[in-house]
Every structure is written in C-alpha cells, then in structure tokens.
Amino acid sequence: MSDQHLPSSQRRKFMLGAAALPLALAMSRIGHAAALPTAQVNTTGLAVTDTEVVVGQLHSATGTMAISETGSIQAEQLAIDQINAMGGILGRKIRVIKEDGASDWPTFAEKSRKLLVNDKVATVFGCWTSASRKAVLPIFEKENGLLYYPTFYEGLEQSKNVIYTGQEATQQILYGLDWAKQEKSAKTFFLIGSDYIWPRTSMKIARKHVEAFQGGKIVGEEYYPLGHTNFNSLINKIKIAKPDCIFAAVVGGSNVAFYKQLKAAGITGAKQFLLTLSVTEDEMLGVGGENFAGFYSSMKYFQSLDNANNKAFVEAFKKAYGPKAVIGDVTQAAYLGPWLWKAAVEKAGSFDVDKVVAASPGIELPTAPEGYVKIHENHHLYSKARIAEGQPDGSFKVVAESPELMVPDPFPKGYQ
Amino acid sequence: MSFDEIYNITLMQGFAGLSLFAVLLLMGLGLAIIFGQMGVINMAHGEFMTIGAYTIFLLSTLTESYAPGLMQAYFPFAIVCAFIVAFIFGWLAEWALIRHLYKRPLDTLLATWGLSLAMQQAFRTLIGPKEVSPTLPDWLMGSWEVTEGLDIPINGMFVLALTLLVTGGVLLALYKSRWGLRVRATVANRAMANATGINTTRTDRVTFAIGCGIAGVAGAAFTTIGSTGPTSGSLYIVDAFLVVTFGGAASLWGTVVSAFGIAQTQSISEFFLSGSMAKVLTLLLIVTILMLRPQGLFASKVRR
Questions:
Q1: For a Cys-Cys bond, which of A244, A248, B7, B83 suits B213, CB 3.0-4.6 Å?
Q2: What is the ipTM of this complex?
Q3: A33 touches chain B (CB under 8 A)
C-alpha cells in the first residue's frame, strides 16, 4: 500500500497554495456570470431554473438508523446553507427536497426513484448503511442519478453514479494496524465485530494484513448478532487469549454494552490496548468517556482536529445545532458532499450528471474540515488516516496521523 | 495456562452466566405477569423498559446540574421513580387501550405493537434519536478485584441483587398479599371471582400497571450495562418473550427456571463457540423443547 501514496505533504501544501489563487478568481468570475442560461447548464431536463437548483436528501429521519443519520442530515444542510449564503452554484440557490428512508431499505429505493424520476433532482446526498446504498444503487444507475454517500464502508464497490466521501475499508484499517505494530508493538490481535458485511469484510482485510504483511498473529475472531448486549463470555475469552491488541468493529447498541462491560470486567485503557473502527464522537455520547478512556479509535476525522478549516466548521455546526452537538467522522464526510458537488458543477460548467461525473476525478477540496481531500478516478476520496485516544470527558485526542494521504482502493489486491 | 487462571476464568464464567440470568429474568418478569396472569401479549413491553431507562437518564442529568453532591446517592431513588413512572404509563395504557380489547388476544397484540411504534417515535421526537447513557455513581462502575486476575463486575452484582429483590417481592406479593389473592382468583376463574365480589377490572388494571412498572425497573437496571435509545426496547423484547414462552406462560417459577436455563446455555456455548453460533444453538434448543412441550417448561393448572 505505502508505495502508492501521494507525493510528500510539503510538496502538496505548496501546490495547494498555488492552486488557491486561480480558484478564488474563478469563483468571483462565476459570481458575475450568474446569467449562464439554463438551457446551457441543464440539457437533460433536471429541476434547474434560472434562480434555483433542486437537490435531494435521502436519509433515515425515523427508525433505528435515525440515531446515526441525524448528524449527516444536519451536516449536509449546513453545507447547503453555507453555499447558498455564498450565492449558490452557477448563480442558482440550492433547494433541498428531504425524503425519509425510515431505516427501511425498500423505502430508500422507492424514495430515490421519486427524487430522480418525479422531482428530477440534480443530485442526491444520502444513504448511510451499505444495505440502503445497495438498495438504491440500481435505480441511480438506471435513471443516471448522482449520489454522494458519506459513510466509511467495506469497499468492494464502485459506481459511475456514486461519489463515496467516506473511507473504504483499507483506508481505515491499514494505517491503524501499522501504527499498532510500530507504536504499541502489537503482535497478537483479537478481532471482534458485529455480525454483518462491514465488520466481516473489515476483519478479513485486517487478518490478511496482520498475518501476511506484519508477521503478526490473530488469536481470536468473534462476531456477535446486531443488538447483542451481553459480552461477559467474550471478555473471558479475551482474558484467556491475552492479545496485545483488541481490534473491534462493534456497532449500535452493542457498542455501548461492549465498552461498559469491558470496564466492569477490569479491562481498561490503562491495562489493555484496544483499537476500534466504530467509535466516533457520536457513539461516545452513548458509550460514555469514562468507559472508553485510554482506548483508541481509527478514523479520518475527529472533532478535535487542530486546523483552521475544522475550527470554522465546528463553530458553524454548533451555532446551527446547539453547543452540545458533536461531530463524528461520518458527519464530516457528509459535510463534504455538497462542497464536492459544487466544485464539480463549477468545473463542468453544467448540472448535467454526465458532465459533473466526468469533472469529478481530480477535484480538490482544500477547505475540508479534515484538512484536504481529492477525488480519485475510482470515485473515492484520498484522505488521511488518524488515530485518536479517548479521553474521560468523551472527547478524542489525536495521537497519530498518516504522513501521506491514503489512496482509496475499494478492490484491494491481496486482501480478497 | 496455570491452574489459577483456569480457576479464575471458571469463576468469572460462572458469574457471566448468573448475570445474564439476572438480566433475562428481570426483563421477562413484567411480561410474565401481564402475559401469564392476564393473557395480554404486550408488544410494548420493551418501550416500558425504555421509559424506565429514560427516567434514570433524566434524574441523573437533573442531579448532575442541580445537586452534584447527591450523585453517589441518587441511583436507588431513581430506580423507584422508574417504577412509578412506568407504572403510571402502564395504568394509562390499560385504561385507554387494553381494557377495550380483552378476550381479543390478536387485537391486543396489534394494538400494543402500534403502541410500541408510537412510543418509539415519541422518544425520538421528544428526547432525541441519539443513544444516551446516564452518569452512574462511581460505586457502580468498574470491577471488584477479589484476587489478582479475578474481576467480578460490580454492575453485574448490582443487577443480580436487584433481580432477586424484585422477583422475591413479586412472588411474595402474588402468594401472600390480598392483591395476589385477587389476581390468582381472577386467573383461575374470572366469572367466579367476579361473583365473589372481586373487582376484576381493577385487578387487571393494577396487574398491568405493576407489570409495566417492573419493566421500568428492568430498563433502569440495564442502564448500567447498555445504553438507551428510542429503539432500545426492541432489542430486549424478543428475549423477554423467549423467556416467558419457554417457561410456560402462566407460571412465574417457570419464568425463573427458563431464564436460568437460557442464560446458562447461551453463556456456556458463547464461551466455546462464536457469538452468533451460540445464539443459533440456544434458539434451536428452545424450539426443540417447545416442539416436544408446547405448553412450556411449567404449565399451571388453569380452568380456561
């Protein structure tokens, strides 16, 4: 993997600085040229008028996934509001049609058809679970729609009609495992996940990486049904196996039970090294800082990231949704969607899906809260991987960051 | 592995089984009272548990902001409140909904399922979709390290003690109190109980409310092991029904024995197999036994 990384970050920063100037000029030019005729920017009958462009937002506002998807809904709305405040896209204000997938995959499919066929939206920001994305994918491909998908996921997918703004599995896993080996001298790993496609695919990659590339050993691999809340037997198995590292991808309500019971069984950050793929600031609300203190999480974004983009983003988010609002990894990825779409539309000079898709690879976003992202040919983002340590107050302290951007690799060779 | 380690793990594994038993029993108990004594299949049982859990969360938040000095002491008081709040909601639900549907078991099933959905959405709208955890007093956290390498979870012991207390209380009330007498009379023969001057309508309402109140206590206890969200209740409802059906619907002792059996099977097979396989094995076992004994482990003699 590492030999595919981008040029050094210093060189990139220099190039960014140089790139920022023409970008600013281009933006002001577009501002003046609000008179781009609709017939020119919209040749495929999308819902675009001289003053307005309609987009769709498709998440679960109700049902079991509302817990997770609310943050994404808020972040996308915030980005759209900010873009509108700047004058919109190609001189047109964005109007959002919100649809509720209700945590039900057929409903997602039906609503996506409604957005694309009846409302003729220019793009859709939405979906969260892989199941919902798989449900809408054939419709987006048939109707030639465009979807910005925010969640880190298992990879093994690439569609012309989807831009994936979260990490595929290797971007989240490989750096974390390398860091565990180098910094924590971890040689034996215990893999734990909820029993569905994302943890299983992730753990398959982790096992390959540890065994084939690190010379380490997997001393246990366990999956528990979604919603499982009793982990005492598992914890005893961990105590017998004595792994250097517990590598976890437990989700939902199980997540909270898992960490509470680890702590209750005397397995704390002070005694045991644990690295997880599934605890962001959102999950931390339920888990509780005191139960996760001293454990590590591998993500691309943490709310505490120290850079100017992120400070502005966090401030705007809290202003919009209250001082107690927290921003997790996926929320930030969802925030990127509207901005990446804006950049692609402006580069293409058109709202037409084919032109926007063609313009997307190579789009850079130096204003991303996570620092800098760029769209790869395969429609995933180049982004950094980061490791952060949970603090007793429920925040994260970033302790490591990949020196280079991780190249997205949804079909990793040697890991299948 | 040394002898000491095997000894420690065996002890901790034994306790894991016991604490799962406590959890299953506590969530099955309220349901067993309502289902067993009244024949009402309460699909909203999980949501009454969630009400109890949210009560704890609310009180913990209030205590934290207005009386931080009482943080170590609020929890037992909050559990009593959880019972009262769930009791009141149960009372209202019986009055508004259930009493119109007695003798129509399938309709109560649908109605309570609707109630459960409505309650979930109400939680989501009023309290918020995110999972929350109350701040627990320090004495409930962490483990009791008996010797080096032997950790007994304190929250597990707490839930176990609470379960024994509640179960003991319910059994005592059912077999020694006037209310218990009336309930048992109503279950045995409703018409005759009515004729002897027992107000069966009122008995039903109190029974339903007590069942819901116990669900509230269960929800309160589970805040020590898991989190609370609008749909937390649905995580527990299937297990709760398993325990009650397996034990034999009309028997509280059956519920106790069945909770113990399921917990030990699950916990031991989880130790030797993977988590998902353990669940499969447990369910297969339950299905097989129920096929051979459809009335459950303990069937009480009731004139229908």
A1: B83
A2: 0.81
A3: no
